[in-house]
Design goal:
The protein is α/β, with parallel strands linked by helices and about 425 residues long. About 10% of the residues lie in helices and about 30% in strands. It has 4 helices and 26 strands. The chain is elongated, with a radius of gyration of 53 Å.
Length: about 425
Amino acid sequence: MIDFSFAPNLTTLNFKNRQGVPTEGENINDFFSNFANNHALQYITVSGYGLTGGVPNFSQYADLKWLQLQSNQLTGDLANLGTLPKVTSLELNDNQLTGALPSMVTLPSLTFLQVDHNQLTSLPADMASYTGYADVDNNNLTVGLQNRGISGNVLYQTVTGKNYTITPTVRSFDPITDVIAGVIGADGQIDLTDPMVAYDLGTPGDLYFTVAPDPDNPVGFKIVAADDTPDGTYTLGIWNTKTHAYNVSLTFTVTNGKDAVVPATGSGTGTTTPTNPGTPTVTPSTPETTVTNDGGADQVVTSKSAQPITGGDGAQITTQKPTTTKKAGQKVGVLKATVGQASPATKSVTKSKGHAVNAVAPKALANVRHQQVAAKGSMVNTAKTTLPQTSERSSASLVAVGIALAVSILGLGIHAKRHE
């Protein structure tokens, strides 16, 4: 390619690939560097020439009316196209262009627009006021035009949606939300009263899908998947309700998953061993017992414990702190007795005067009876005892009667002996 600076008045540039001649794949910026000084160009046509790269800025050509770059290998968006006040025809079809079309403000004289078969994804809002011819079919537009009068044809688009995971409890999803915005109305805004609808559930979608409204998206809808819906890729045919001018082939994937496991509340992760409420646990206690020792073998044993003692069957033994009279010269010891164990005939208590003090139950009971009668102003308050409520009540009563009878006989014998 040569530099065309020698022809400053050049107005028409027409490069077309002749049939059967392979394209060179030249970068578009390198190509037009040969025409940098040809500012009088009005018609530029470079078709099928294999140009690569992004569309450059053409605003240096102030008198440009036609810009035809169709059937090349152009990529990227059209942000650098620039303002072209006199361009009436813009043909960029059959390339690999992406992004959005430029605002119509930059193309105020445009009457013929052909950008089909690209990968464009968006249209400008002011496209709604465009009254010329426009072919924007076969792109990936996620927003459509409500007015089909711009070309008289339906705007066919191909859009790739998301992957949706369905679970045993979550069977629906909206394929429109965050994928398709809707259609632009005459005011240049998305018409929320013109929702998208599915006119074709596709194959095999028609075997598994039903359609339901989406209360959260006025331009969308929900797909409800059957229980036996397999993993796979599905394609729906959708269009806008009012004019059907925006027609989309929407593809998405579906994956079967599991419901999320909600962790149980609580801080611990260990196991808990249940207890049997019918088998209460009894903790033996060791109450303090006061022993009045007069130096002999007989002692008075009284409990200081005022805490209730629970038996094995729920019965309660209530004890009270007794009042004990101590004679001059007497020593007081503390007996440690374990509740719930059978008392032997003799128990060891704390030492008094360096000797072990023993409590002899029968004699101690007799001595207590004698001291209650003989001592002046002295009184030993015995604790009130509530017997356990068990099946042994009758046996315990008989034993108590026997002990009382023995004590009475022994007491009478001692009293008679003293009178003798």
